[in-house]
Amino acid sequence: MSHPAVRTYIRQKLAQLIQEEYGAVDVIAGVATAGIPQGVLVAQELGLPFIYVRSKAKEHGTGSLIEGEIIEGQRVVVIEDLISTGKSSLQAVEALRAAGLSVAGLVAIFTYGFDQADQNFADAKCRYSTLSNYPTLISYAAEHGFIAQNEINLLNKWRETPATWGKDIAIDAE
């Protein structure tokens, strides 16, 4: 968000991805909190209304989970910055569906590509698309000399089993 050229690039690419993958939509929804700034920018790019989904309902006022004007039946695309397991993203999707919106899908800047995320999105019957992913990042980093081959193997092992990865690695305390 601090770099206008990068911010513009991401905004334009997310808007393009939505148009290519999901066609015409009525509203853009951001997932609180990181999906909000990206979602606002994409909604502006597409000339669409913007709403956002909180992680939990407000404890005061209206107690809203969804902020912004919604109309039952609207076709919405959800914006997220990052997908790991998809849990928070899919909570937002379910909230939007419960409010009567038709969720066309979700777009994000990046995904780790965890099998769990793929399964969670499949179970929720929600398509998702991203601008980039972990294998692409690792490949780019290796190709440009940012990481060595032994580091690639270590990083790929992490991606295979992130929850248990560090438990079987001896760390040198020196």
Can you put this structure into words, describing what you see?
- The mean pLDDT is 92.
- Helix 1 (4-22) crosses helix 2.
- The chain has helices at 4-22, 35-46, 87-98, 115-123, 134-143, 149-160; strands at residues 27-31, 50-53, 66-67, 75-83, 102-111, 128-133.
- It is globular and about 50 Å long.
- Strands 3-2-1-4-5-6 form a 6-stranded mixed sheet.
- The protein has 174 residues and is an alpha/beta fold.
Oligomer: single chain
For the record, the CATH class is Alpha Beta
Low-confidence stretches: none
Number of strands: 6
Biggest beta-sheet profile: 6 strands, mixed
**Shape call:** globular
Instruction: Domain count, please report it.
Output: 1
Strand content: 15-25%
Mean pLDDT across residues = 92
SSE inventory with pairings:
Blueprint: H1 4-22, E1 27-31, H2 35-46, E2 50-53, E3 66-67, E4 75-83, H3 87-98, E5 102-111, H4 115-123, E6 128-133, H5 134-143, H6 149-160
Helix pairs in contact: 1-2, 5-6
Summarize, please.
With 174 residues, the protein is of the alpha/beta class. The protein is 43% helix and 21% strand. The longest helix is centred in the first third of the chain and has 19 residues, at 4-22.
Provide tags for this entry.
6-stranded mixed sheet; 43% helix; alpha/beta
